[in-house]
Specification:
alpha/beta, globular
Length: 548
């Protein structure tokens, strides 16, 4: 029997596995999805390179999105639309475009852009300082040590100093150059008085860690063939495998966590579709902010009739989603905007929680041509250039490489109408699927309007024509970053786990994913913080086991 079972191999599960195995513990990862082979599964070197990240059997978890709120006339100015296709949400209600995730060896890091951010320390005390959300149960300084470890292991490259950080203690690789197209956007942002800096990216700018340097193909979201992007499979999990202490079981979906009166005793899992009980001394749940609460709520028993860890009735509550505003326009010059890293610069000027006028909760701005998927001829032909025949071909040649896109990503504050519960629909084993309930409140609407207005202003200042496509969370639930459904804290009645991710009730159960976040931050990518928290939780486990 393994000392530790980890459910999921993404940022939290992978980082915890590395830390524990490097100290001699035996770890078994149970991964619901498959493994991916970069050389055969990813398509950057093929003619069909515009194909999105591959969907393989088991690489998507099942979920339901509850009916969403009605749309109002007051939000018409920030709706999602395209000059070619009209409104992306033509109906009267907000619509789901999906929870974008990957189940597989490495989790959603397989298709992330590489962004690697620390949190703004001011976002860690929202309740104390601003009366909203919740405070983190420790200070920024308590996580610094673990952020530094995560930056080293994942190979973060970027500036050593940053305006949001109380200390400039980061030792990072050489920042990546900003692409020609992104420079045009940066010039527009600077004309508006914004500060622009190279982004912190877990992408090699020079060869390191036996991995290549980036070739700036821009294919990060479709899967990195070269291994220069620091996804969890080629960083933490590779190192953990090298210890000889890690076993990974793929295509193994954990359905329930099993307990006796006092402790976790194991898990019920479907291994290649066959139900099996796997015993464990200790379990780390790292299934993500949608599927971790599903597993806990489905694990009800005589000892936990409302679901595991749900004595506080907080499992699934406090869901925080991606708040996004994107504007896209044509620049008069051919900039080669299909080239370069997807998010090579960033502006943190409005990242502080009270930096947006009359709004609590900050945001960030960055280029988004790749994230908006306007880097290839198919995208241009279906969304940018209309017409037919020779005229269309001529217009395509004229337009290609001229698209610029800018995005704002903002703080998501919890509200009572945004949460995860169990649906009436069930999976193939008869257990309820997770149901996502999402609601955009008035303050989130104001934040989205500020972000959209700023994006439009940056494009105009960069010399672009009027926008030709825009996307907004105001009318579409479309999330990659999900937080908060198993909040950590010091007050048992308000939280699910303590500051180390450890269950208050079950001492041999930990949660290590973004579900433990008390706040989302003002647009930071959560992966680096998930890794840091997981390493911190692993060290707590090691201390309890007397391992140095």
């Amino acid at each position: 029997m393994s000392n530790v079972i980890i459910i999921g191999s993404g940022a939290g599960g992978g980082a915890a596995a590395w830390r524990l195995t490097s100290k001699g513990l035996k770890v078994q990862i149970l991964e619901a999805g498959p493994s991916f082979d970069p050389l055969t599964d990813y398509k950057q070197d093929n003619s069909d390179w515009e194909t999105p990240f591959p969907v393989k059997e088991g690489s998507q978890g099942g979920y339901i999105v509850a009916p969403l709120q009605p749309l109002t006339e007051e939000t018409q100015d920030i709706r999602s639309w395209s000059f070619m296709n009209g409104k992306y949400v033509p109906g009267a209600f907000r619509t789901s475009f999906g929870y974008h995730h990957v189940r597989g060896f490495g989790g959603s890091s397989l298709h992330f852009t590489g962004e690697a951010h620390r949190l703004n320390p001011k976002s860690m005390s929202l309740q104390s300082d601003y009366g909203v959300g919740a405070d983190w149960p420790f200070k920024y300084e308590d996580l610094e040590y673990y952020w530094r470890i995560a930056e080293k292991i994942s190979g973060v490259c970027g500036p050593s100093t940053e305006q949001r950080s109380p200390k400039n203690d980061r030792v990072l690789g050489t920042p990546h150059p900003i692409s020609y197209a992104s420079q045009a956007l940066a010039a527009g942002a600077r004309k508006l008085g914004l500060t622009v800096t190279e982004n912190s990216l877990a992408v090699n700018s020079t060869p390191q860690d036996d991995r290549a340097d980036c070739n700036y193909c821009g294919g990060c979201l479709r899967g990195c063939q070269r291994g220069d992007k620091g996804s969890i499979d080629v960083t933490y999990l590779r190192r953990a495998m090298q210890t000889g202490n890690l076993t990974v079981t793929s295509s193994t979906e954990v359905l329930k966590i099993i307990t006796n009166a006092n402790r976790i005793t194991g898990v019920l899992a479907a291994v290649d579709g066959v139900l099996k009980v796997i015993e464990a001394d200790l379990v780390i749940l790292s299934a993500g902010s949608i599927f971790s609460p599903q597993i806990l709520l489905n694990s009800e028993s005589v000892h936990s009739p409302e679901g595991l860890c749900n004595d506080s009735d907080q499992v699934g509550k406090n869901l925080m989603e991606t708040l996004l505003a994107t504007s896209t326009a044509l620049h008069p010059d051919k900039l080669g905007s299909h080239r370069g890293l997807p998010v090579d610069w960033i502006s943190w000027d409005f990242n502080d929680p009270i930096s947006i006028p009359n709004v609590i909760g900050g945001c960030r701005f960055s280029p988004s041509m790749a994230e908006s998927d306007v880097v290839g001829p198919i995208a241009y032909a279906t969304r940018i250039v209309d017409g037919w025949g020779k005229d269309h071909k001529r217009n395509m040649q004229e337009a290609f490489g001229r698209i610029l896109s800018i995005s704002g990503i903002g703080e998501s504050l919890p509200n009572s109408k945004t949460f995860v519960d169990l649906a009436s629909e069930t999976n193939s084993h008869g257990l309820p699927l997770p149901r996502i309930n999402s609601y955009i409140d008035e303050m989130a609407t104001d934040r989205l309007r500020f972000m959209m207005t700023t994006c439009r202003n940056i494009l105009a200042a960069a010399g672009c024509a009027a926008p030709i496509e825009e996307f907004s969370s105001i009318d579409a639930f479309s999330s990659t970053h999900i937080f908060g459904t198993c909040r950590m804290g010091n007050v048992t009645e308000e939280c699910v786990v303590n500051s180390y991710g450890q269950s208050f009730r079950w001492p041999n159960l930990y949660i290590a994913d973004a579900s433990v976040f008390p706040s989302s931050g003002g647009g930071e990518s959560p992966g680096l913080t998930v890794q840091a928290l997981a390493i911190r939780s692993a060290d707590h486990i090691l201390r309890n086991k007397g391992v140095q």
